[in-house]
Structures are given as structure tokens and as C-alpha cells.
């Protein structure tokens, strides 16, 4: 494999780098890396992989750019709001390095498509923000024999490791079971300091480049954590679990499963909980209690006046603060967390509890247009 004159100039700082040089650059040029998620982590990771000269770079995403993304997702800009993320990401990455072959996968990763997709690549970078997708990516990487450079961020903190190598642990070795639904809000629910995914995503790209080029000591069997407020890094050893159901000595999980069900995060089937419209709530406001199950930071942005606040993760410990004799309408941002809250409340004895269809976003559209979105 040879380099063009333009490639020699572009990668000159790599080519003169001791213990990397032409051998490392050729390894990158021949490699194929898949970034799952073109968001906060995927932005710096994809940009540095493209800039470094990874031969084929795949991107998986199905979302569109929202104004709230721009505080951290640097693949996208203000003119891209409303565009599919893959379109704006492709424009940015091609402008950064046209030598890289981009493969765009506009889909939602699932048990049906993960194995066939991962088979096309040498390594996967997990830049997602839900436990269901993290377990899916982990299991698909183990079953397809692909290293998983896994990262996550929340508020002021992040963590990073390299899972699913031949002798190293997988994500399930570290976290055998997902946390209870609602205990760990996503970044969209709990917030994140914009630079944190920039730091962690850059480290994620670093680990991917090390694995692909065969240099250094990747974070195999080690978990790196980052605390932005303290500006501190810590490392923890992670051992391979011989009893792991997917990567252990006698694995019981040999095919991908329903990960929403495994994590307990599947949204209730439409019709399984009763819903009311914002207009119904206005007309019946005097006779019902209203419960907001969003996080405190979300409530500071906008609110439905007179509602009670119990974040979803605290509902199991605080539901008895509510009056079970009154009709109850529950809301969140778009109606998903609140639908799960309705299911829970029905299970503990409430008989007349309703989900606000479309959440506070629909309330703002139809009732109070002055409320800011987020």
C-alpha cells in the first residue's frame, strides 16, 4: 500500500512519529471503523478518526439535528437544524478529509441489523446514550468478534474502556445487569456539560486509533473515569468474568435478544395506558392533580403551573405523597417517561391515572406557546 503525494503531506506528522510511521498509517488506511451515534461522543470521535486517515469510516444515526444538540455536537452547525445528522456529519467529515471513504447508515440499530452491520467493520465505537443500545452493541461485538470502544457521559463525568477483545472483558463483565429504569437519566433528561463529551469522545478516538494501528496499551481490562469538576482521571481494573452469559467460558447468550425488554425500558404499547390531551387537561384542571416526572433541571426551563414534581427515578420512594383518591395526570417532556410512570402508579393502587399525550412539548404547542422548548 502506497501513499499519494497529498496523503504524505496530510499525514506527515504521523509518518515522522516514532513507533507509528508509515506502518501505523498504512494500518489506519486499511482499517474500517464504525461509529454508532453522530452526537456528543460521535462528533469528536468521528472527526479525529477521519482526520487521522482511517480508510473506511461508517456512521450510524437516525436522528435530525436539533438546536439543543449544538452545545456539544460539533459535527453539526446552526444551519443544519432540521437536517438528518448523517447529512451534516458527512459534509463536515468530507470537508475535513476527502481521502476517507464514508459509509452512512441511516437506521436505528437493532437486534435484526447489528450483526450484519458490524461484520463490515474491524472495530465499533459506542457513542450512544441508552443502556438498551449499549448492551446490544456489546453483545453484537462479542458475537461478531469486534472490539468495542465504549464511552458514556453524564453531567460532569464520563467513562471509557475497550471491551470485547479476545482476552479482555466485555461490558456485561462490568455491568451484569442494567440499572432500574429511571435511576440513571439520559443526557437529554439529566444534562451534560458540553465539553465533557468532547474530552471523552477524543479519548475514545485515541483508543480506537491505538487498536487499529496496533500501538500502545489500549484500555483493555481497565475503566477510565473523568470528573470535569475536579479535573481528575481515575482507572479501575475490570476482570473478565468466566461466568459472563455472553463472553464467559460457557455462554448462555448466543444470539441477540430484545434489549428494551432486558433493560425494562420498552415504552408502553399505545393504548395500554389511558391518555388525555392538553385541551382535556385545561378543561378539567380544577378536578385533577398533575404530576411532573421530569428532572429538576428540566422543570427550571418550563413547567405546567400548579403541578407536583417527583422525578421518575424517585417515584417508587415518593408515590405516597400523591392523593390516590383523585384523578392524576402525569407528564414529562414528550410522554414516554410519564407513560412508564402511569404503568407503575396503576400497579401500586391508583385507579384513575392518565398520561398527558405528547408531554409538555405538545402542551406548549397547543396551550402555552410562550413556554421555551429544550
What features would you describe in this structure?
The chain is α/β, with parallel strands linked by helices and 374 residues long. The protein folds into 2 domains: 31-263, Rossmann fold, CATH 3.40.50.720; 275-366, 3-Layer(aba) Sandwich (Oxidized Rhodanese, domain 1). The protein is 34% helix and 17% strand. It is built from 16 helices and 13 strands. The chain has helices at residues 5-10, 12-15, 21-29, 42-52, 85-96, 114-118, 131-144, 171-174, 187-190, 195-213, 259-263, 278-283, 296-301, 315-318, 336-347, 359-366, and strands at 32-36, 56-60, 101-105, 123-126, 148-154, 157-163, 222-227, 232-237, 275-276, 288-292, 308-309, 327-331, 353-356. Strands 3-2-1-4-5-6-7-8 form an 8-stranded mixed beta sheet, sandwiched between helices. Helix 4 (42-52) links the parallel strand 1 and strand 2 (56-60). The longest helix is centred in the middle third of the chain and has 19 residues, at 195-213. The radius of gyration is 23 Å and the shape is globular. 40% of the residues are buried.
Layout of SSEs?
Blueprint: H1 5-10, H2 12-15, H3 21-29, E1 32-36, H4 42-52, E2 56-60, H5 85-96, E3 101-105, H6 114-118, E4 123-126, H7 131-144, E5 148-154, E6 157-163, H8 171-174, H9 187-190, H10 195-213, E7 222-227, E8 232-237, H11 259-263, E9 275-276, H12 278-283, E10 288-292, H13 296-301, E11 308-309, H14 315-318, E12 327-331, H15 336-347, E13 353-356, H16 359-366
Parallel strand pairs: 1-2, 1-4, 2-3, 4-5, 9-13, 10-11, 10-12, 12-13
Antiparallel strand pairs: 5-6, 6-7, 7-8
